[in-house]
Amino acid sequence: MVKNAVGRDIPEEIAGMKLIPFKGAFAHVPEGRKVAPKLGYVASPDKRNKVVKGIEEAIKKVGLSDGMTISFHHHFRDGDMVMNMVLEAAMKLGIKDLTLAPSSTFPCQEDTVLRAIKTGTLKYIEGGSYRGKIGQAVSSGVFDKPVRLRSHGGRVRAITSGDIHIDVAFIGAPSSDYAGNCNGLFGPHACGCIQYSVPDAHYAEKVVVVTDNLVEYPCTPIEISEQYVDVVALVDQIGDPNKIVSGTLRITKSPTRLKIARDAVKLAHITGHIYDGCSFQAGAGGISLAFTKFLGELLEKEGYVASWAMAGTTKFLVDILRKGHVKKVLTGQAFDTAAIESMQNDRNHFFAGIDHYAHVHGKGCLVNNLDVIVLGATEVDVNFNVNTVTFSNGMLSHPIGGHQDTAAGAKLTIITAPLMRGRLPIIVDEVTTVTTPGETVDAVVTEYGIAINPRRDDLMEKVKGSDLNIVDIEDLKKLAYRKAGIKEQKKPDWDDEIVALVEYRDGTIIDVVRKVKGLENPLDKIE
Amino acid sequence: MVKNAVGRDIPEEIAGMKLIPFKGAFAHVPEGRKVAPKLGYVASPDKRNKVVKGIEEAIKKVGLSDGMTISFHHHFRDGDMVMNMVLEAAMKLGIKDLTLAPSSTFPCQEDTVLRAIKTGTLKYIEGGSYRGKIGQAVSSGVFDKPVRLRSHGGRVRAITSGDIHIDVAFIGAPSSDYAGNCNGLFGPHACGCIQYSVPDAHYAEKVVVVTDNLVEYPCTPIEISEQYVDVVALVDQIGDPNKIVSGTLRITKSPTRLKIARDAVKLAHITGHIYDGCSFQAGAGGISLAFTKFLGELLEKEGYVASWAMAGTTKFLVDILRKGHVKKVLTGQAFDTAAIESMQNDRNHFFAGIDHYAHVHGKGCLVNNLDVIVLGATEVDVNFNVNTVTFSNGMLSHPIGGHQDTAAGAKLTIITAPLMRGRLPIIVDEVTTVTTPGETVDAVVTEYGIAINPRRDDLMEKVKGSDLNIVDIEDLKKLAYRKAGIKEQKKPDWDDEIVALVEYRDGTIIDVVRKVKGLENPLDKIE
User: Fold this and answer.
1) Which chain B positions have a beta carbon within 8 Å of A42's beta carbon?
2) Are B354 and B160 in contact (CB under 8 A)?
3) Per the CB 3.0–4.6 Å rule, which of A510, B334, B491, B493 could disulfide with B339?
């Protein structure tokens, strides 16, 4: 065990994998080269048509077999149909010991994934998120070796460096031509873009584009080119765009959370990060949506035009673009139909390449150029470390997303969080799991005050004399504990066994997650 | 020496380079993987601004030093200013033994390139074209080892496979932001696109974007992303778009050549390759321009709408797009301001990725999906082999361009050529140099008749009963020889020394070019 730069004990090696402990947000300099994808070959132009009917044919054509790694994007989120189709087909064909390497998983896939594990078709999940019953399964110790949690940028890094080796990428594409040129922009089930699959397409041994909308050659715009595609599988439906966001995409109605969003905007403005020409990102959580709305109002009031913004995009950001208060929007993921329509029609609305968005082992990325990012948290500790991946009971719960990436890149990183969730304190002594290191977090905005990271004297200087309630994070924590009626933070009841490694975006290990004692294994309920 | 599939003698090794003789257009199956570019790293977001003033600063910043390989694109063709600026700066800084690996060279660069060779700053030229005085210098034997001629697709192949290793790519960009996101589409010196540099950007050790138009971040559309860019060099002017085409871009006025163009259209139509939904490419030579014009007229007359076309694009193709007789245009190189403006304004006008265009070692490319391609030739022989790279005296003269790529990919490949140029026969027994193998050429259209490749019985069947003058290629040759007053083809007066290797698009060697005896070395005239 080695103590890493956020004080967590990291094994030097586990299950045959050598680990590099986290050294600090900007300290790890990568060595060596990217991994080299295979040279392709098309025998002759006669082979230009790559279409087959259905998933099974595609699986046979690319030679998917025991022990391989398969990947998927999550642009349809809870409306995805491709992963289930492929897993069902693999089970039917009796393929065993696959590794699943998706960019994320969602509730609609849980039952199929668990069944595939139970039947031996899946033996491991590599990267992506570990939510819901899948998180519970991992936390109860179903796998022989620990899984790895990675940020969006971290997954690109892992693929380009060879840490994730994909044998077959299955890419749900709302439009494709017979040769595999495809995009997420148009079609009866358009999802905006399919960027999460771009690294998969570039590095996988074999690529299957799965589409329900075969269009005339060449399918444009070309988001993924035929150069990378082996087979085009035609199916009835790849996903339901209406289920991209599970539940309703709605601004929080809680006065507490609205206050947090307003204070976050105020903080960013007072400290000089909202100005004519600024850039920002905010996500699709309740507080983030409110932040985007209030930010739009501020831009309007001040007559500012932001230079650009990016996001998991929603109608709130589209509104700002339509009103002319941001010049350009770059979307990595469309969260609602307003976003999809805007991408289709507005020439100032672009998709953001997922590698361009956050790949840390390139020579620069979009997140590095952000003025402001607003992010949520499951827990924040007095060292400003943030947890997004485990509940306080230690069970895997949520993904990292772009949290680490944007926090490291933006000039001002604001974490918004209520002081409590139910009876649980959110500001704690030590986060259960470190996802994002405190050195990349500048301020925590709660309904009981704003804590500024002591590393940022400059911000402290700027808020002086404002009506913002600036507090010490220790005091926030104490208040939270008092309200919770506890003296000490309750630690998870963890076994020794490490079930998950939390990678920092640069591939080093920032924390580990252990098996939760006495946790029910959801596989036991699968027939 | 080994005889290759077009009967040329190829050494198995030369100057330490192992050679693979050409095996047939679709016979060589590549093994192994692409080369792996270096992992990038940005120390922290503070480093986001990459701008330096001028070329010298950029050269110092990326550490350009003796023996390295530098690359350039040729989108400005004879109006390019970047290559000369860099060579001048390198000479001034006393850097020696550089290898020049441009996508092409033009007359405006000849003097500087020759001076750089003479002063020892340049020691070799890798790929690109060998025109004019540069061709003459190579043909007179200035280099220690033979140069290599490659097609557009072949250059991408060579870079991605590691055959060309670029240390520093200099990329003239009509628009760039401080981080290096850039494009060729907008700016005071817009050239349409900068696609020839995309492989360079992805694979070079260091990348310098050279721009005269710094725009607000993020520069969109993003043709090359900041992920690949080390330094942005700000200069006064990168090129003159008015000189993209040397001389005037004008349709041939020669009745002979107009007839050739008309017959080529007729042949493509009669054989079923021009239809509602067809695809085509034609270049910017005099006959090709006329072909495009006549093709447009045919589409109009028949009420056809072609599905797509690509080209080194000119106003003639833009006209067809505007009139709605082609749905989409994909441009790899803009040849006039009409093309540039159309790319800027028409949502159905896209740029064609140079890798997507013609990279043979991917899983498919645009050229494979063409119905018709019309190409020129310096010579064609009775086996339908085409020479584009040497004069009949054996001196290097012209580049390959997309000749090999499109000929191999298209369903119908038509070579248009006058029977004679001056007193020289163009249809000969054996081309001086094989650029494009006869097996990928379907027909040769001359003013004295159309020769169809005997491999294409199907075409022969289709032209039966038409008013096209179908002749045997042997008869064309005989006629040419008679008109030239010769009995036998005059062969070049070549030395034994091999000065150039002609690569086929797959990296095998299709022919060699030898030193021309008694040729004046243009370096002798450089002070």
Assistant:
1) 360, 362-365, 368
2) no
3) B334
Strand ranges (E), A212-276? 231-234
Distance CA(A331)–CA(A339), nearest Å, equals: 8
Amino acid of residue A94: G
Residue-range domains of chain A with CATH: 51-126+164-243 (3.40.1080.10), 247-484 (3.40.1080.10)
Contact criterion met (CB below 8 Å) for B472 and B440: no
CB pairs under 8 A between A and B: 183
The confidence score (pLDDT) of residue B31 equals 86
B272-306 b/e with 16+ CB inside 10 Å = b?
ebbeeebbbbbbbbbbbbbbbbbbbebbeeeebeb
H-helix or E-strand containing B407? helix B403-409
Q: Do A222 and B350 touch (CB under 8 A)?
A: yes
User: Residues of B with CB below 8 A from A367's CB?
Assistant: 45
Helix (H) or strand (E) holding A307: strand A306-313
Q: Tell me if A180 and B363 make a contact (CB, 8 A cut-off).
A: yes
| Identity of the residue in B39, B218, B355 whose CB atom sits nearest the CB atom of A328 | B218
Task: Return the number of other C-beta atoms located less than 10 Å from residue B63's C-beta.
Answer: 12
Enumerate the residues of chain A whose CB falls inside 8 A of the CB of residue B228.
362-363
Q: Which structure tokens are listed for B27?
A: 């016979």
Q: What is the pTM of this model?
A: 0.96
DSSP assignment of A179-223: T--EESSSSTT--S--GGGHHHHHH-SEEEEEES-B-SSSPSS-S
- The answer to whether A396 touches A444, Cβ cutoff 8 Å, is no
Please tell me the distance from the alpha carbon of residue B356 to that of residue B29, in angstroms, as a whole number. Answer: 19
Assign B229 to helix, strand or coil: coil
CB contact under 8 A, A408 and B355: no
Instruction: For an interface test with A, give the residue of B227, B229, B307 to mutate (most A CBs within 10 A).
Output: B227
User: Closest Cα partner for B508 from B150, B156, B199?
Assistant: B150
Give Cβ neighbours of residue A309 (< 8 Å, ≥ 6 apart): A279, A280, A281, A282, A317, A320, A321, A326, A328, A329, A330
Q: In chain A, which residues have pLDDT < 70?
A: 43-46, 246-249
- Residue A355 and residue B227: Cβ atoms within 8 Å? yes
Question: What confidence tens digit (pLDDT) does each residue in B186-237 have?
Answer: 999 999 999 999 999 999 999 999 999 999 999 999 999 999 999 999 999 9
Size of chain B in residues:
527
Query: Which residue is associated with the tokens 């310096």?
Result: B378
HEC profile for B338-402?
HHHHHHHHCCCEEECCHHHHHCCCCCCCHHHHCCEEEECCCEEECCCCEECCECCCCCECCCCCC
pLDDT of residue B48: 83
B408, A364: Cβ pair inside 8 Å? no
Q: Are B183 and B174 in contact (CB under 8 A)?
A: yes
Instruction: Give residue-wise pLDDT tens across range B249-302.
Output: 678 889 999 999 999 999 999 999 999 999 999 877 889 999 999 999 999 999
Q: Above pLDDT 70, what percent of chain B?
A: 98
Average pLDDT rounded to a whole number, residues B72-101:
98
